[in-house]
Structures are given as C-alpha cells and as structure tokens.
C-alpha cells in the first residue's frame, strides 16, 4: 500500500515539475533580452523594427519583442495587430493573453 502512495506522490510531483517548467519557459521568453512584451506573429514580417504608438518593436521573422509601455497589455496587443496582422501569442512580464483575450486582441 505504501509503495502505491509513494508512486502516486512521485507522479504528482513530476507532473507539477513539468507544468512549472512550461510556465517558467513562457515567462523567460517574454523577458528575453530585457523585453517586457513578446509576440508571435501568424505570418513573419520583413521589417526589423515596427513602431506602434511610441513602442519600438524589434522583430525577427515571426517573433517581436518590445520594452514596457504604460498602456494595458490588451491595448498594446491590439495596436501591434493593426501594424503586423494576427498574432498566435502575446505575453508580457505580467502574463500571457489567452483564449478570448487573444481573440479580442486579434480583432484590433
């Protein structure tokens, strides 16, 4: 009986570690290079710098990053969409926009 409990506990700990690693990886990518925002574009852009309302986004292929701005994440996201088109992900150091929030962002 004690072995099955230990195995269940071990399995639960491994699951928590895996989930934690995924979440930590997402946060690390959002702050990569000192950037506050990180966006994955549905289609790559040719320009390396995209300016949206005073924010200078640095883009490489389909990945863009930018320093902090005083606007809410949803507003920063929508402004980027107006310049570069749909995003597959958008994150800041505060967290990621997901589901309905990302869908609203993509409407610009």
Q: Which SSEs are present, and which pair or pack?
A:
Layout: H1 2-30, E1 37-41, E2 49-52, E3 55-60, E4 63-66, H2 73-84, E5 87-92, E6 95-97, H3 99-106
Helix pairs in contact: 2-3
What does this protein structure show overall?
The protein is of the alpha+beta class. The chain has one domain (31-106). The protein is built from three helices and six strands, in the order αββββαββα. The chain has helices at 2-30, 73-84, 99-106, and strands spanning 37-41, 49-52, 55-60, 63-66, 87-92, 95-97. Strands 2-3-4-1-5-6 form a six-stranded antiparallel beta sheet, with helices on both faces. Strand 2 and strand 3 (55-60) form a beta hairpin. The longest helix has 29 residues, at 2-30.
Overall structural domain count: 1
Return the string of H and E elements: HEEEEHEEH
Radius of gyration: 18 Å
Structural class: alpha+beta
- N-end to C-end Cα span: 57 Å
The percent of residues in helical segments reads 40-55%
* H/I helix tally: 3
Give a short summary of the structure:
The chain has 108 residues and is an alpha+beta fold. It is built from 3 helices and 6 strands. The chain has helices at residues 2-30, 73-84, 99-106; strands at residues 37-41, 49-52, 55-60, 63-66, 87-92, 95-97.
Key features of this structure:
single chain, about 110 residues, alpha+beta
């Amino acid at each position: 009986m004690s072995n099955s409990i230990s195995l269940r506990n071990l399995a639960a700990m491994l699951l928590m570690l895996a989930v934690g690693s995924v979440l930590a990886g997402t946060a690390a990518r959002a702050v990569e290079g000192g950037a506050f925002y990180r966006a994955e574009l549905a289609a790559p852009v040719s320009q390396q710098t995209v300016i949206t309302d005073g924010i200078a986004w640095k883009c490489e292929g389909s990945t863009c990053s930018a320093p902090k701005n005083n606007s809410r994440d949803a507003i920063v996201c929508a402004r980027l969409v107006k310049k570069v088109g749909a995003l597959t992900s958008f994150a800041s150091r505060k967290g990621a926009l997901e589901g309905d929030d990302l869908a609203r962002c993509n409407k610009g």
